[in-house]
Write a structure and sequence with these properties.
This protein has 302 residues and is of the alpha+beta class. The protein has one domain: 2-Layer Sandwich (HIT family, subunit A). 27% of the residues lie in helices and 25% in strands. β3 and β4 form a beta hairpin. The longest helix is centred in the last third of the chain and has 19 residues. The protein starts with a strand and ends with a helix. The structure holds zinc ion. Zinc ion binds next to loops.
Length: 302
């Protein structure tokens, strides 16, 4: 058993890593019995959703559709992005993933041009444990009239230390090589140093870019994202529930570095987490990265 108390490199929130080898979370695999229903997001069922706000077309019909959320958290500020016309798709199988990432950027720009918008959250829930109520692959864009707590905590530390916090952390991680999963031309994939879920991955751009709004390497980023999700699934199971979040600054704040988190939902929060707002994670990131490297090696030699 290994035990550490770690601080999130950006927010300084404390997490408890209590790695128990005999109780690996990956043995928890989610089996969901899907009720037969008419899927509102499948191609051909467009009339079941509100009128679309934005669409990306391919040679034989739409590839990505953005519609207003029928149950918005904030009225007129909450999109549902239908990631693909294909019900069975997931991030690692969506061929037009670069266009989906570009759609996120377009919707962010749209909301940041509205009066009163402070922050635009882009996220993706997959599977019941991750909060997805419809199995068809979809994402959400939600504009808020306030800065969210995590971003405020990060910004406070960016300002106090007046330095590129995530850039410095990235350099250190690249030197140490203890949690690096992969490195491409412009992106690094890391096992999170102080994760809030077991196997939490971070995708960090090598060049300081404050927001997804300023990103333009969508083809490469799509490949990195696909490979990362595919790697997690080959280890944690094809039916894995997970969230993806796109942690970006508003376009007027360039003193930040955006990053993407992939959060496998293989554990649930209990009373300790609710009482303290500190999280206990049962897999040490250094062990997790060794496990994933082994899978990657096996896959590459298949
Ligand atoms: Zn569907």
């Amino acid at each position: 058993m290994s035990f550490f108390i770690r601080e999130d490199p950006l927010t300084a929130e404390r997490r408890i890593i209590a790695s128990v080898r005999s109780r690996r979370p990956h043995i928890i695999r989610e089996i969901t019995e899907e009720e037969p229903f008419q899927c509102p997001f499948c191609a051909g069922n467009e009339a079941l959703t509100p009128k679309e706000l934005f669409v990306v077309n391919g040679p034989s019909g739409w590839l990505v559709r953005v519609v207003p959320n029928k149950f918005p958290a904030i009225p007129n500020m909450h999109d549902v992005v239908v990631d693909s016309p294909n019900h069975e798709d997931d991030i690692d199988r969506i061929e037009h993933l670069d266009k989906l990432l570009w759609t996120y950027k377009e919707r962010m720009v749209h909301y940041y041009n509205q009066d009163g918008v402070k922050y635009v959250a882009v996220f993706r829930n997959r599977g019941v444990s991750a909060g997805a109520s419809i199995p068809h692959p979809h994402s959400q864009v939600l504009a808020t009239p306030f800065y969210p707590s995590r971003f405020l905590k990060e910004k406070e530390r960016y300002e106090r230390e007046s330095t590129d916090l995530l850039g410095n952390f990235l350099r250190k991680e690249l030197e140490l090589q203890e949690r690096v999963v992969s490195v491409s031309k412009n992106f690094v994939v890391l096992m999170a140093y102080a994760p809030i879920t077991p196997y939490e991955l971070w995708i960090v751009p090598k060049e300081a870019t404050s927001s997804l709004v300023f990103e333009n390497k969508f083809e490469e980023l799509a490949q990195v994202l696909k490979d990362s999700v595919s790697l997690l699934k080959s280890f944690l199971g094809e039916n894995l529930s997970y969230n993806i979040t796109f942690q970006s600054a508003p376009p007027w704040d360039r003193d930040y570095r955006y990053y993407i988190r992939i959060l496998p939902r293989v554990a649930v929060f209990g009373g300790f987490e609710l009482e303290t707002e500190n999280v206990i994670v049962s897999v040490a990131p250094e062990e997790a990265v060794i496990e994933l490297r082994t899978v990657k090696y096996a896959k590459s030699t298949e």
